[in-house]
Amino acid sequence: MTTRVRVFPSSDREAHGVIVDDFGESIGIPVEIGGELIAGPARRWAVMLDDDNLLFVDSEDLEAE
């Protein structure tokens, strides 16, 4: 089953797409080396947008269509 969602709903960044992966609640931590942030914390959801871009977001950034 494909779940359609709105990403960043009701904002100027709103986009539409489908969830393609759920990384669960244990999604990792930021990576810092020598005081420099190399990678921020992972996001829970991978969403393939209708414009074919892949976006990684957290649950609070999603709303079911």
UniProtKB/TrEMBL annotation:
Domain of life: Bacteria
Protein name: Uncharacterized protein
